[in-house]
Amino acid sequence: MSRIEKIQQKLIKTGVDLLVLREQGNIVYAVDWDKPLSGILLIPKSGDAKLITSRLEGIKLPSSINGVKVIKTERGEKLLQRVLKEVDKGLKYVEFDSLDMNYVLELENELNILIKTKSKIVSEMRKVKDQYEIEKLRKAAEIASLIAREVFEELEEGVSEVEVAYRYNYGVVLKGAFKPAFETIVAFGENSYDPHFTPSSRRLKKGEIVLLDAGADYLNYKSDLTRTMVFKDNGGGNKVREMVEAVEEAKKAVEKIASPKVKASELDAVACEVLAEYGFEEYFVHGLGHGVGIDIHEPPSIEPSSNEELRAGNVITIEPGVYIPGVGGVRIEDTYLITDSGLVKLTF
User: Do residues 91 and 114 touch, judged by C-beta distance below 8 A?
Assistant: First the structure.
């Protein structure tokens, strides 16, 4: 059974006549396509699904993808104008994955329909990966891991953060990825204090922290990892070594309990307990992790406020970190698959 058919079954059960998808990740997932897609996907509770896309984007697409009819706008025609032509009249309940109110109100007025709510149908399906998705995620993880290792092995004094980021980005493409999974983070020394630092022209010196946060996009599926080291440690970085030890121990403690039915918030709490033993809890400034798939950040969110339980088939990151002003930051991150028998590490 195709993903479109599975979605249609859920529409029937919930009394929804039409699902309108606008988010690229949801469209790619529903169509089950290995390349980027953009536009608006219309999935009725019965009959053919239609992808409405611009003439520009439609040039590279076939007339049908996995049973989904591809409809290209006419010259000068807006996507919404075409959607209004393609939606069957007489529909009552319509759900959207993204609530742009101007867009929703125009559909309500033009088609006299009742907008039911923001849909969770596709986002819930995406949480649990099938075997085909897992294989692509494994490959994305392999590419990121190999290139991260190569980049660290080739570090030399005087290289800039931007140069290291370029080496990584170039390397993952040569290994078969579409592109990096997100903007690669490379930070030296105290720059590593900023979890979302943008690489600069700063050049590497002996004894400095090197932090690399990166991933790979393989056939639309992402990986995510972070590696931290001290370059040519000259013995002066006792504080940093303690930070690394604390983060590693926190990560190991989480790995031991991560399994189906464990709440995401419990994982975060375990990491915080370990960091507190080292006196570093106040320096842990972000959530412990997140889901990974077509998008780099997907449910489930691994953070204190999350009540979600892990499920077999979830792919998540675990990424404890410690960030101390004037010293820098240490973060160690890997991507994992949750299985009925425990945790499987995808990155290495």
Answer: no
